Structures are given as structure tokens and as C-alpha cells.
Amino acid sequence: MSEFVEKLRTLIVAGDVRISEHGYDELADDGLSAREVLNGIQEAVIVEEYPDYPKGPCALLLQKDRMGAPIHVVWGILKGYSKPVVLVTAYRPDPGRWNQAFTRRQKR
Predict the structure, then answer these.
(1) What is the phi/psi pair of residue 60, to 5°?
(2) Percentage of the chain with pLDDT > 70?
(3) Residue 25 reports pLDDT greater than 80
(4) Is the pLDDT of residue 52 over 90?
(5) Residue 78 CB-density burial (10 A; 0-12 exposed, 13-18 middle, 19+ buried)
(6) Phi/psi at 22 (nearest 5 deg)?
(7) How large is the C-alpha radius of gyration of the chain?
(8) 12: phi then psi, degrees, rounded to nearest 5
(9) CB neighbour list of residue 71: distance below 8 Å, 6 or more residues apart
(10) Most exposed among 31, 45, 73, 74, judged by the fewest C-beta atoms under 10 Å?
(11) What is the 3-state secondary structure (H, E, C) of 65-98?
């Protein structure tokens, strides 16, 4: 696990989390609760990391919902800050756009 993702986990366990407005909208759109996304961080798998993203480092993680179905969650930390961790978005990945494990994008 990357150092950045370990930092995300530590902040989430400590409760130092914010959910973006977009994040709340996406959770609602896909019938996900903030609690299940927060609880899923311990078993999360890194899909992609963006250490140089202009708004601050972030990562796309594969997590599971309360029923064990795959969800993608983008977590980040605003540039210039060390906390809180921000849930940027969470969604159910489209099987047509990802490999069977939901860890690699399909080539178009």
C-alpha cells in the first residue's frame, strides 16, 4: 500500500474527513451511504494515484459496498494541506469501461 493511501486511512480512522458537495451527490445517485464508504477503506485497493493533481494529491480506490459490490472512490487532500481527507466522488463502476476486477480501464 502506498504511503499516501496509508495517510488517507489514518485520517479516516481519526475522523478527519470531509465529503465534497459532488461526493454527496454521487453517493446519493448510486444509493451509497457515507458510512459504508468510510468503513470500506481498510480493504481498499489502489486503482490509480494522482500525486501531482493540480488541486492536491488524490487516489482512485476500489472498495466494496455493504453488499460486497465494487465501488470506486476518489479520495484527496487539498493542495497545501495535510488534512482533512476529502471524499471527492464515489460511484459504481461501469462494467463496460473496466476490466472484470474493476482495476483497469478497458481500451476503446
Answers:
(1) -95, 120
(2) 98
(3) yes
(4) yes
(5) middle
(6) -60, -40
(7) 13
(8) -65, -45
(9) 30, 32, 37, 40, 62, 63, 64, 65, 90, 91, 92, 93
(10) 31
(11) CCCCCEEEEEEECCCCCCCCEEEEEEECCCCCCE
Average pLDDT over the chain, rounded to whole? 94
Give the Cα-Cα-Cα angle 28, 34, 35 (nearest 5 degrees).
Answer: 140
The class that CATH gives domain 3-91 is: alpha beta
Largest Cα–Cα distance of the chain, in whole Å? 40
d(Cα 14, Cα 26) in Å, to the nearest integer?
24
| DSSP states along 2-66 | -HHHHHHHHHHHTT-EEE-HHHHHHHHHTT--HHHHHHGGGG-EEEEEETT-TT--EEEEEEE-T
Structural contact between residues 59 and 75, judged by C-beta atoms closer than 8 angstroms: yes
Task: Please tell me the distance from the alpha carbon of residue 21 to that of residue 59, in angstroms, as a whole number.
Answer: 18
